[in-house]
Specification:
Number of domains: 1
Order of helices and strands: HH
Strand content: under 5%
Number of strands: 0
Largest sheet: none
Shape: rod-shaped
Number of helices: 2
Length: 144
């Protein structure tokens, strides 16, 4: 009995590779977005600490003004990070869509392979059955 052979196996391997690459790229995009979100959280914590320290009783007017400039700088850094986060979210969505497409392409070939393998097994079973019937029939004819 010959073994099952899927003639699109190389193409399936290529689709699996493309899916893995898309998955890796999606992971990178999510990682970059997570890093930006972490930087935003730490910036918010720093701003909160600075705002709380701004009007401490031991601060002079000059020190309060320095805190004000620092808070403005933190705010502009936050705005820049928000823009970066929006771009990173767009990249995540693009990468997610590419992964979804690669997954669907690979899944379609996997289903085709499974269907062909099922058909092959059905054919082999029918062939084995007919061969067994033929052998049994020839033995019965010889015994008569």
């Amino acid at each position: 009995m010959k073994r099952f052979s899927f003639n699109l196996e190389k193409f399936l391997a290529l689709r699996k590779f493309e899916e893995q690459e898309a998955k890796t790229e999606l992971g990178r995009a999510i990682g970059a977005l997570s890093e930006i979100e972490q930087r935003l959280r730490s910036l918010a914590e720093e701003r909160s600490r600075a705002a709380a320290s701004q009007f401490a009783p031991e601060n002079s007017a000059a020190m309060i003004q320095q805190y004000m400039f620092y808070l403005l700088r933190l705010d502009s850094a936050r705005e820049q990070l928000c823009k970066e986060a929006a771009l990173a979210e767009m990249k995540v969505e693009e990468a997610r869509e590419l992964f979804r497409t690669a997954y669907q392409n690979r899944e379609a070939l996997d289903r085709l392979k499974a269907k062909r393998e099922k058909e092959y097994k059905k054919e082999m079973l029918a062939e084995d059955t007919s061969l067994t019937d033929e052998i049994a029939g020839s033995r019965a004819a010889r015994n008569r």
